[in-house]
Write a structure and sequence with these properties.
Elements lengths: L24 H8 L2 H16 L3 H11 L3 H12 L2 H12 L9 H17 L1 H6 L3 H9 L5 H6 L29 E6 L5 E6 L3 E6 L5 E7 L5 E6 L5 E6 L3 E6 L5 E7 L5 E6 L6 E5 L3 E6 L4 E8 L5 E6 L5 E6 L4 E5 L12 E3 L6 E6 L5 E6 L4 E5 L22 E3 L5 E3 L1
Antiparallel strand pairs: 1-2, 2-3, 3-4, 5-6, 6-7, 7-8, 9-10, 10-11, 11-12, 13-14, 14-15, 15-16, 17-18, 18-19, 20-21
Amino acid sequence: MQRDLKFNICELESSHLRNHEVPDLKLRIKSHIGPALQYACTHWIEHFTASPNQTLLTSTKTFFDGPQLMYWLEVLSILGRLDVAISGLSNLTALDLTQYDGWDPLAPWARDAHRFLLSFYDAIAASAPHLYISALAFAPSKSLTAQRMRPYFPNTIKVPAGDKNWYPCVKSILHPHQIQSLSASHDGLRLIAGYSDGSLCLWDNQTSVRIGELLIGHNEPVTCVVFSSDDSLVASSSCDTTIRVWEAKEYLKTHGTLSGHSSSVNCVAFSPNAAILASGSSDKTIRLWDPKALCSIGEPYVAHTSRVSSLAFSPDGTKLASASWDKTIRIWSVDLTGSKLSGNPLLITGHSDSVTCIAFFPDSSRIASGSVDRIVRIWDAQTGVQVETRAPLMKHSDSISAITFFIRWEIHCV
């Protein structure tokens, strides 16, 4: 691969055409990028991460230390396989190979190359020449990729002023409509977005490329979207009073519709084993559903005196928490079969305005809640007593609309 890679490998005459507009691109690929080189470019990181050793690491360091890095990205752009670089570099940077000589400088090079690719993915994917004339030219001047690669390409345009370091926002994605709800798959590879026109769409979380077509599922705005624990299903709720269940193994595909609420469905949540789907509505009720059989389970549960705004199952599957505009949180016990809630849920009060969002701690012991009162509160999930773990309580400048946990138990609010 290092022997055959070179600048402008397909001898493209102009940067004015996007890859798919080059009339004889397939012939150029056949002539200049043979099967062996194609295989090497699309699989070398896979082989390296599967069985790293000192010899491979030394070769990889040499690869990143020279212009071959750019030539490799050029080939992947032409082949339409830039996604290979995104996932490959991500997997490479996740390795801990400090026992090998040369890993310490290689790791930050790979991380910066991954950041470079995320930031300029659209331009590079559209046109291989723009890897050099746009992406490399406009990369932040202090980025490792710019500092290491620009000397190999002295004819790259000089940008008189620009960013010196990477901007905190990795990438912006233009969506077709206003986003009402967004959720990530549990494996972190995909995003599901629900829009104001009632449509939904899957997105590749690594490349930011849309997966499949935009699908219309609801007659009114989508209010909530969520993946099942195995990422095989997606549930969406809407102001049109319905819930839609979608198959999501590869592309988004309609599975069925659940009807029963008499007003807007504001939230949905899968149980940890994905056997139960819970929904909360402006009709003040909570319902349980079988998402695969597409049928309701039991009668509606009534405890709140205003709309149900948020639902969350505990990670151990023993509890369901519900939040409401009535300023309260209720914690329901889930029976051993997972098909019924306790008739007398634990009542939690303390917020001075509508509770908008809730999330369980990863160990199921506590709950975090956000409210229109601009405060995040933490509660003991067994007793309902407020847990004063942070002083003062986290107060925001406006209503809190979402709350979630990262792996290290860090609370993130929006």
